[in-house]
Every structure is written in structure tokens, then in C-alpha cells.
Write a structure and sequence with these properties.
By secondary structure, this protein is of the alpha/beta class. It is built from eleven helices and eight strands. Bound molecules: SN-glycerol-3-phosphate (G3P).
């Protein structure tokens, strides 16, 4: 399973990359807005730190605008993946960019048919938003399971990138449901190697050793 960090904050990206298990980065307009920095400039900085896929979202919502921005973003670095909304216009842009050899991440996916259509259009990644589905009292993980089954039924190669992950339990469930990738906020990455029994156990090992041998 690949692990991406969902942020545009360079310091968080560097800290996550230092762990040695970071495979990519996703950004979106809300995350860039928090950083108050030019989107293109920050993408260039991110691509210097992380060599895996870096998702760069377009701001345009019409086909021509998405194509123009998508081509521009793709020139920033060879690991840029153009992120497009899962709309009709986005689907058309996905197919056209795919035909030009530019990989895409189809975002804001909330139902299985969007995932089916973008796979047919050659998307590299599809991003179902788990947390936002849970927010409206539905089951985000059910969407991951359905997309997994559809892609397996037909052998689609589009990777399922579980997004809008809010806590470690989401992460465990995504791994069990067979998501190919999870994009995770830094706060969740920080929790992924934590367990109180690990800390207590380590403390006891060291205390026992000290008691026996001093030091
Ligand atoms: O990758 C999508 C993600 O940034 C959305 O997360 O928590 O705003 O729903 P959230």
C-alpha cells in the first residue's frame, strides 16, 4: 500500500519524507490557500523533496481551462499528476490528458460510477473522499469496497487513492478494503507508529536491564 501525505506544507512534507516510507503527496486549493504561497512555486518545492507522484489540482472547471492548466502543471516536474474534479468536464480532460501521456488524479469522487467512468478514461488515480461521506452519516468505507470490486471485476488499472482520511481507524479500514494508496494528513501519519503498550513495554525492558546491569 502506498502512503501519500495530504498537505501543501513543506515542513510537514520534509518530516514525513524523513521517515523513509512516503510515496507521494496530494495537494488541493484549500491546502494551498492555507500556505498563502503561489501554487506553482510550492509544487516545484515539493517535487524537489518527493520524487513519487505529486498531485497538483487545477482551478479551472471547464474543459479548455483544465487542459491549459493541466499542461502547465505537468511541465513543473516529471512526477506531477494533474488533479481534476470528477465532473463531466473533468472526465473529458482526464481522457484528453491521458492521451497526451499526462497522468491524472480524479478527485471529489463520491460514488462508484464516477470511479468506473474515470477508470475508462484512463485516470492514474481516483480519490474517493471517505471522511466527507462519513460526515453526512453515510459509510465512506463502503465506497472504497465497491470501487475495489468494480476495478477487480474488469481489471482496471486506475489506483484507488483513499482521501479525506481523518484518523488511524480510517487508515486501517482502507488497508483492509484494498485501497492502493491512502493520502493522510501529517497528524495521522504521526499517530501511525504509536501504541501506549509499546511505550510501557519499552520502559519496562530498559528498567529491567538497568536494574540487572546498572547504568
Ligand atoms: O485529499 C482530500 C482531502 O484533503 C480532503 O480532506 O478532511 O478536507 O475532507 P477533508
Amino acid at each position: 500500500m502506498d502512503l501519500y501525505i495530504d498537505t501543501a506544507n513543506l515542513d510537514e512534507i520534509k518530516q514525513a519524507a524523513d521517515l523513509g516510507v512516503l510515496d507521494g503527496v496530494t495537494t488541493n486549493p484549500s491546502l494551498i490557500a492555507k500556505e498563502k504561497i503561489d501554487y506553482g512555486k510550492r509544487l516545484g518545492q515539493i517535487c524537489e523533496v518527493v520524487k513519487g507522484p505529486v498531485s497538483a489540482e487545477v482551478i479551472a472547471i471547464d474543459f479548455n481551462g483544465m487542459m491549459k492548466e493541466g499542461r502547465e502543471r505537468a511541465k513543473i516536474a516529471e512526477n506531477i499528476v494533474v488533479k481534476l474534479p470528477s465532473t463531466v468536464e473533468g472526465l473529458r480532460a482526464c481522457k484528453a490528458l491521458h492521451d497526451e501521456g499526462i497522468p491524472t488524479n480524479m478527485t471529489l469522487c463520491f460514488q462508484p460510477l464516477q470511479a468506473l467512468m474515470v477508470a475508462k478514461a484512463g485516470a492514474f488515480l481516483v480519490s474517493p473522499f471517505i471522511g466527507r461521506i462519513d460526515d453526512i452519516a453515510e459509510d465512506g468505507m463502503d465506497l472504497i469496497r465497491k470501487i475495489r470490486q468494480i476495478y477487480d471485476n474488469y481489471g482496471y488499472e486506475t489506483k484507488i487513492l483513499a482521501a479525506s482520511i481523518r484518523h488511524p481507524k480510517h487508515m486501517v479500514e482502507c488497508a483492509l478494503a484494498g485501497a492502493d494508496v491512502a493520502t493522510v494528513p501529517f497528524s495521522v501519519i504521526q499517530q501511525m507508529m504509536k501504541h501506549p503498550l509499546t511505550d510501557v513495554g519499552l520502559e519496562k525492558f530498559l528498567a529491567d536491564y538497568k536494574k540487572a546491569f546498572g547504568g
